[in-house]
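Meet our chain:
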Amino acid sequence: MPRSARSPLLLAGLLAVAGAAHFARPRSFDPLVPRVLPGPPRGWTYAGGAAELALAAGVALPRTRRASARAAAAFFVGVLPGNVQMAVDWRHRPAWQRAAAVGRLPLQLPLVLWARGVARNAQGRS
């Protein structure tokens, strides 16, 4: 299978693993929810996990791949404030945790570009 054919499936797999992790270990994700959002963080954690699982399914299916990959790109932009929140909140943690929190920030751009590339290369309309 050529790399371009694997790319959507790898993106779908990443989204599925991340989405499932929101349900398996929600306490790990609750602190990422920006405090300006209404309601308890756990609801946002579950909503984010459900969104990632839905996006994974959509990206995996050729018929919905283009629209879902575009939505995934927007989702990756949308979760950037949570990653910024984590970097700010973790600035007094041990060095390895600070590095992990700050290291997440530049990863958003490649994720957005990857999802946009999957959308661009998708066949058909969606």
Summary: The mean pLDDT is 91.
